[in-house]
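Q: Please design a sequence for this.
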């Protein structure tokens, strides 16, 4: 375990990173499908001593599509499935607000990262965020967290925006999916 892992954390977006992204929101457990290799990738982070924290925008609550309790139940079941494969997500933070509410927790704002840092004693400057959207990378940059973009979910479109020069934050790496992003971080931090 490196010094970084003892203080830092790996923040993971949910939709498009851990589970397959749905444009119409997850409305039942049957609609949850893990990105191939996600649980094993999370386990590899755990084995290396990293704390893993999920941070996700869930405006479906604020839009009245599902309830707060429903989102929590989905997260509980996701964590059980990941644990059944030997992985562990240490904590989950989600923004339930409609995008027009103006909260400070909805990514690209860093509210969830700051909350996690306070509650879990995380050194944000020693942390990484893995996301499929530029809002994930922007939230990380605003909090001093290094961002890794994955091409799953909205990642390909986000990468195109980066290449076009229309992004306000730049990731430190781009990976095909969560397993490759985790492997990149583990290689970098073990050197």
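A: Design:
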């Amino acid at each position: 375990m490196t010094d970084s892992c003892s203080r830092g954390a790996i923040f993971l977006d949910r939709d498009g990173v851990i589970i397959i992204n749905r444009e119409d929101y997850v409305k039942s457990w049957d609609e949850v499908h893990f990105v191939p290799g996600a649980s094993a990738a999370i386990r590899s982070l755990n084995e290396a001593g990293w704390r893993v924290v999920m941070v996700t925008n869930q405006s479906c609550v604020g839009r009245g599509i599902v309830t707060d309790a429903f989102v929590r139940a989905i997260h509980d079941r996701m964590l059980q499935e990941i644990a059944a494969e030997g992985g562990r997500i240490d904590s989950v933070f989600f923004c339930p607000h409609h995008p027009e509410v103006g909260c400070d927790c909805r990514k690209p704002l860093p509210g969830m990262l700051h909350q996690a840092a306070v509650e879990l004693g995380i050194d944000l400057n020693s942390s990484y965020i893995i996301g499929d959207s530029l809002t994930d990378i922007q939230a990380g940059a605003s909090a001093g967290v290094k961002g890794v973009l994955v091409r799953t979910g909205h990642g390909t479109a986000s990468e195109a925006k980066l290449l076009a020069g229309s992004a306000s934050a730049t990731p430190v790496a781009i990976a095909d999916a969560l397993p490759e992003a985790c492997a990149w971080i583990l290689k970098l931090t073990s050197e």
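Q: Thanks. Anything notable?
A: Strands lie at 9-12, 51-57, 91-95, 128-131, 146-150, 173-175. The first strand starts at residue 9 and ends at 12.
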